[in-house]
Amino acid sequence: MSQPESHPLSKDALAEFRADIASWLEANCPLSQRQPIVREEQIWGGRRRVFPSQDAQQWFEACRDRGFTAPEWPVEYGGAGLNAEQAKVLKQEMSRLGCRPPLYCQGLWMLGPALLVYGNEAQKREHLTAICRGELRWAQGYSEPSAGSDLANLKTKAEDCGDHFLVNGTKIWTTKADEADWIFCLVRTSDVTPKQAGISFLLIDMATEGVSTSPIPLISGESEFCQTFFDNVKVPKANLVGELNGGWAVAKELLKHERKMMSAFEGMLEKPVMELLELADYAVGSDAQGQLNDAELRSDMTRHLMRETALGQLGERIYWQGKAQQADPRLPLLMKYLGTSEAQAKDELVLRALGDEGLSMEDPNVSAGLRKMVKQWAFNKSLTIAGGTSEVQLNIIAKRALGMPSGESKS
Amino acid sequence: MILNEEQAMLRETVAQFFAEKAPISQLRSLAGGSNQQGYDPQLWSEMVELGLPGITVPEVHDGLEFGWMGLGAIAQEAGRCLVASPLLSSVVLAQNLLLNCGSDEQIAAYLPSLISGEATATVALEEGRFFSADAIATSEASGALKGHKTRVLDVGQCSHIFCVAERASGDRGVAMFAPSAEGVAIGSRRTMDLHSAGSIQLDGVSTADVVWLAGDDVEGGIQRTIDQSTIVLAAEMMGSAREVLERTVAYLSEREQFDVKLGTFQALQHRCAHMYCELELAESAVSAALTGLDNDAPNVSVLASSAKALANDCFTLISSEAVQLHGGMGVTEEMDIGLFLKRSRVCNQLLGSSSYHRDRYARLNGF
């Protein structure tokens, strides 16, 4: 990420910055916005954005005006221009007070970081600013019905028509595309081999004629994902990011951020109504010594809790290694596979413990909170698929961490 | 959770030392001989010269005070070569039991000879089929100690035995005596991993012949020693697991079948990648536990149980898979892979199986 030259701050300057931030947060973050966030109240921005409350709007606007929706982005693009140290202080202070994240947005997490590297000046000015001001909501157009793990097999075509591209094809698993304003897409601009060398990165306004979306109902009863169709869609040439046929490099930059986001996904989800132990005690009860009545559930839950704790400890190890300039580059490769598997293991324990109350997602006799946990069990099956399947993660680990020999597969 | 410069240097020195002086072939030749030695005294005296007995000992007791992360790193390197030595029995278990449970006078009287290598000690703790820290039947009655101890490490070669037993008062205590004391019958046993874990029959050992450790908090000291030793054993196991995974990956990257390297097969790559994930996950729990010891964390018992359960499961998985992935060679005596398999199963039982530690973790966390 291109950033203003950052000078390490003196201890005093940093302490002053911290005090400044703390008093700003105290003054600007309404008490209601210091409660744990629920999914319905997340602010995703966009042309059709609505605020769940006046407080939420006030908090969002205060952050937007100070650049705190994208603290590390340069000021000229709507960020706050903080260096890494300062951004960490902001994060710490926000988490200390329990402040809600002011903006949730794929543009913020994924497109923005890639634009900072590959975008031209005009693109940065137009899009980064709109992203951190929450004016436009972005969707991602990568996967296609015939291009999942084998992303380079994508077929959506962008034909060179002089001043514009003519786009035809379809994208799938486009998160909340039905609520998005723009979509960043990988499109085929050449049929050369290898397939990766004929792909370009395009920004497409979804209000353009010929773009349509249709939600995909999931096993959780929700439809987070859509299929998006492009039928003779005219896209100005100015919307090409990076080189023509150079989209793969942009995509890889962006995927890095997606995997990071997916490993952190659990943290973004709202807190469950009950912690696992509490839930198990509620569901199966405990004996006079306080031990859960289901011995196998108790043992399996312990195994999970130990592993979940160890995952946090792995994160700490990575952090301390980085701080001591002794980073082991293999360790971050493991986080997505381990983190998403363990999240699913937890969901399975929840479902097992719930027994009868876990058999329906709609049963009105079951509390809304518990029904939500059942839905999450189903929804979280996507964690090991989206953002690079567990199988792809294992391929990467075998190759890059263990240096195992490459076979015939071109992936 | 990372080594400082001194610790990293020591680790390198020790790794080189073990690779040269204590390769697995040494362990095999020791076991092949007619003697009943569980470890090579010559190797041990060289380890003493490196200063290993004093690694975690505070400077006030003339130790190096290199910390538990430092000792953990050494244990890992020992684990890589499956080194048989009194590192666990004397340095980790006995010395810490003395430090944690002994009076200042007792520490001053007995610790120096342990650090200098003149003496070696072991701890008689475990009884019965499985480890259980709370089920100690050995007891003092009418001025005599009676009981049966199992899995006493290196008991055939030690000069002092620290025995955990119930005292006439009903409190738990630690009795120190010589293996030659009257009423003590030592049963040496070489376990299948070629290390040594024997038994002690105590048939009315006169309490006039024993020294009871007399520190302020003997019970707390016993618990603390068990946690410390459990964590260091877990670290040793992680070293062994890492070594055997590396050997397996190297084998798959060389061995050809169907005209290709076996390691190109995705089915095998995924198994190795999964093992590597499990390895680093368990390693993180062990690192956190060692750091917990260094920082005197209040939840050290929880960290210890987590570390041992994860290390048990991880080393069990990796050693089993290593045998399978080596194919026919994996079940031959010629390959060392089988020794890693056996070592993992012995370590599983020492200081608590996974089921023991999961149960303990749950109890400590109130469920």
Topology:
The complex is a heterodimer of chains A (411) and B (367).
Chain A: H1 11-28, H2 54-66, H3 84-97, H4 106-118, H5 121-132, E1 138-141, E2 157-160, E3 164-175, E4 182-188, E5 199-205, E6 211-216, E7 225-236, E8 240-241, H6 247-263, H7 265-268, H8 276-284, H9 295-323, H10 335-354, H11 368-379, H12 390-401
Parallel strand pairs in A: 1-4
Antiparallel strand pairs in A: 2-3, 3-7, 4-5, 5-8, 6-7
Chain B: H1 5-21, H2 24-32, H3 41-49, H4 67-80, H5 87-101, H6 104-115, E1 121-124, E2 139-141, E3 144-153, E4 160-166, E5 172-177, E6 184-187, E7 197-206, E8 211-212, H7 218-254, E9 256-257, E10 260-261, H8 266-294, H9 300-325, H10 337-349, H11 354-364
Parallel strand pairs in B: 1-4
Antiparallel strand pairs in B: 2-3, 3-7, 4-5, 5-8, 6-7, 9-10
Helix pairs in contact in B: 1-4, 4-7, 4-8, 5-6, 5-7, 7-8, 7-9, 7-10, 8-9, 9-10, 9-11
